[in-house]
Specification:
The complex is a heterodimer. By secondary structure, chain A is an alpha+beta fold. Helix content of chain A is 51%, strand content 19%. Chain A is elongated, with a radius of gyration of 30 Å. Classes of the chains: A alpha+beta, B alpha/beta. Chains A and B meet through helix 1, helix 11 and helix 15 of A and helix 2, strand 6 and helix 3 of B. Chain B: This is Cell division transporter, ATP-binding protein FtsE (TC 3.A.5.1.1).
Chain lengths: 427, 237
């Protein structure tokens, strides 16, 4: 009988191809939508995390209180030991020291006189340690618009807009004028080897990236760092995990009586990001939930209509001796198969689209210009993100809704007298 | 003799709810049909003949009275038992053929045998034989859309008799056919009735069919008004 029914399903496109296509498209849309929401939200969080907050960040309690002033005189010391310890204690995250500093960038002419000058917001990043993922998370290979990545501590990357503003060419030397962690005056030369465009609104305008070894030399911060940033290995920000980690770390390591003891903050603790995280999670949940419900109603309805359309066939099968249970079970089995096949193809299609959008992204540069004065770090390009739940989320509407619709339609087999099914058949 | 009785009905009443009231489709029907009979339930529309046929087939249940088919009291059987009775011992022929459009003639005829779990080799033989009985051997692999109305109904007959049931119930089997096809269909059924000793019960108001019937039960307003034996029907020829 299974072979007989399979033959029928394969031949009857209105029972196979059309429902499979509907399920496939609905599932693909759900997955792509969820993936795009994931990617966009996590992209926003990750951009903030990469540039300033990390998923979690360790600094001294004193630095935390004055963090807006970039007070490197309150920096963490002996950061190598700290990074080694947290890497061992929290292996689901990777940890990296960071020096955040500001200053004046001076561009000399061929006679050593100032040709151009401007303020700079600079980051000393650990590019060169073995296993460092900084180039990956900064997406520097993609964001580099000229030149190359630094190869030693005296080389720097400048944002393309800052380089343009200062009239800099690749290979030229710039002098950082600032203060050391001991509040002494310092000047340090960096060679500009590349320019980048982060597509992060206002941040791009005056940013310089150097290796942390160069920053340490420039600011006399040997072994020190403004902060140690931690990122989930998956790069996916999970607020619950970050908050739990923060609580656990601070309970063990932070001493409220010592202003130089380390304290961990989560991404949500910085720059009103907590409101953003809560709002985004709620909005994402509602939007995806509504979309999921709509898709489930469509697929439920399809299952229902598919069942109703076959009352005649059901009546005939009952007449020639199939039991109600056999007919009902075969209808459900059919819808399970259709739902499963449609969901598998839909999942593949949805993941494919999501992966494509994860790699290519959607450029919103023009719209982001209007947010130029925002305090939040917004990406100009929205990327989707393939996350583990995308592999199974489609099965809920794809299989469950289709089967439930068929089950509802099939109730008629039990509710009605068989003779009634014949009447419907003959009209 | 009792063992030759195929259908025995006593005091059958069937009422359908209509709005807040009831419509009586059959009232106090008593009827006995013996093995091998070629019988017609005849009457105008609404007289209750299709309802009676459905009750005999176990597709509908009586409101009152006793119905026994092939020695089984339908009132006392479960739905599963009635399905088994239909599967093994009954065949149905419908006015609108009710063939499954995506299957070939062979596959449509094969379905009752699949339900009866007949092995594939025996199935092939029985289907081929049934198709030959109705004269459609050259259409074995055709689908219903490629057949004429007469050929569709012959396929439906083959499906009804392929498992050689004791009883075939036919509801207006010629209503959608022209005169020539109607006669052809009836001749096939007469032949099967005689060769297989299968009992046939028709619900009809088609004059062409009546000429073949050996017994005509007249129904009017849900009651049997006349039970007539025909001395020289075409089926006797």
């Amino acid at each position: 009988m299974i072979k007989f029914l399979t033959k029928g399903i394969l031949r009857d496109r209105s029972r196979s191809l059309f429902p499979v296509l509907v399920v496939m498209l609905a599932v693909a849309m759900i997955i792509f939508f969820q993936g795009f929401m994931n990617g966009t939200l996590n992209g926003m969080f990750l951009d903030s995390a990469v540039v300033s907050t990390g998923h979690v960040k360790i600094m001294t309690r004193a630095y935390k209180e004055e963090s807006q002033l970039l007070p490197n005189d309150l920096a963490l010391l002996e950061t190598k030991q700290l990074v080694d310890k947290v890497s061992q204690d929290y292996p689901n995250h990777f940890w990296t020291p960071r020096i955040t500093f500001g200053g004046l960038l001076d561009v000399p002419d061929e006679n050593g006189e100032t040709k151009a000058q401007g303020p700079v917001f600079a980051l000393g990043i650990d590019f060169f340690s073995s296993g460092s993922r900084q180039i990956e998370i900064w997406k520097l290979e993609r964001r580099l618009v000229g030149g190359r990545l630094p190869e030693n501590g005296s080389e720097a990357l400048l944002s393309a807009s800052l380089a343009r503003k200062l009239g800099l060419s690749l290979g030229e030397t710039v002098t950082l004028i600032g203060s050391t962690m001991y509040n002494a005056f310092t000047t340090y030369n960096f060679t500009v080897v590349g320019t980048f465009k982060l597509n992060l609104g206002p941040l791009d305008r005056q940013m310089m990236l150097v290796d942390i070894s160069g920053a340490r030399l420039a600011l006399d911060m040997e072994g020190a760092a403004s902060s140690v940033l931690g990122y989930a290995n998956s790069l996916f920000y999970d607020d619950t995990v970050a908050v739990a980690l923060r609580q656990q770390y601070n309970k063990i390591n932070s001493d409220t009586t010592d202003i130089f003891s380390p304290i961990m903050v989560a991404l949500r603790d910085s720059n009103q990001m907590g409101v953003m995280v809560d709002w985004m999670n709620a909005a994402s949940g509602i939007i995806v939930g509504v979309f999921l419900v709509i898709a489930m109603i469509v697929l439920w309805n399809m299952g229902l209509m598919n069942g109703l359309r076959r009352y005649g066939e059901i009546g005939m099968r009952l007449a020639i001796g199939e039991s109600k249970g056999q007919v009902y079970r075969s209808m459900i089995m059919e819808s399970v198969i259709i739902g499963f096949i449609g969901t598998v193809f839909g999942t593949a299609m949805g993941l494919g689209l999501t992966y494509y959008m994860q790699e290519v992204g959607l450029d919103y540069s023009a719209a982001m210009e209007s947010l130029g004065s925002s305090e939040f770090i917004f990406s100009n390009v929205f990327y989707a993100q393939v996350t583990p739940e995308l592999y199974y989320i489609g099965f809920m509407p794809g299989v469950l809704a289709t089967v439930l619709g068929t089950m509802l339609a099939g109730r008629a087999i039990y509710k009605r007298e068989m003779a009634q099914l014949f009447k419907e058949l003959e009209t | 003799m009792e063992q030759n009785i195929v259908i025995k009905i006593k005091n059958l009443t069937k009422r359908f709810p209509v709005g807040g009231d009831y419509f009586t489709a059959l009232q106090d029907v008593d009827l006995t049909l013996n093995e091998g009979e070629f019988t017609g339930l005849v009457g105008p529309s609404g007289s209750g003949k299709t309802t009676l046929l459905n009750i005999i087939g176990g597709l509908d249940s009586p409101s009152k009275g006793q119905v026994s088919v092939l020695a089984q009291a339908l009132n006392d059987t479960t739905h599963k038992e009635r399905a088994q009775l239909r599967r093994e011992n009954m065949g149905f022929i419908f006015q609108s053929y009710n063939l499954l459009p995506v299957y070939t003639v062979f596959e449509n005829v094969e379905l009752p045998l699949i339900l009866n779990k007949i092995d594939s080799q025996e199935r092939r033989q029985k289907v081929a034989q049934a198709i030959e009985w109705v004269g459609l051997s050259d259409k074995t692999n055709s689908r219903p859309a490629m057949l004429s109305g007469g050929e569709c109904q012959r396929t439906a007959i083959a499906r009804a008799i392929v498992h050689q049931p004791a009883l075939v119930l036919a509801d207006e089997p010629t209503a959608n056919l022209d005169a020539e096809n109607s006669h052809h269909i009836m001749k096939i059924m007469v032949q099967l009735n005689q060769e297989l000793s299968t009992s046939f019960v028709f619900a009809t108001h088609d004059e062409k069919i009546m000429a073949y019937l050996r017994r005509i039960i007249h129904l009017n307003d849900g009651q049997i008004t006349k039970d007539e034996k025909i001395d020289n029907p075409k089926s006797a020829a």
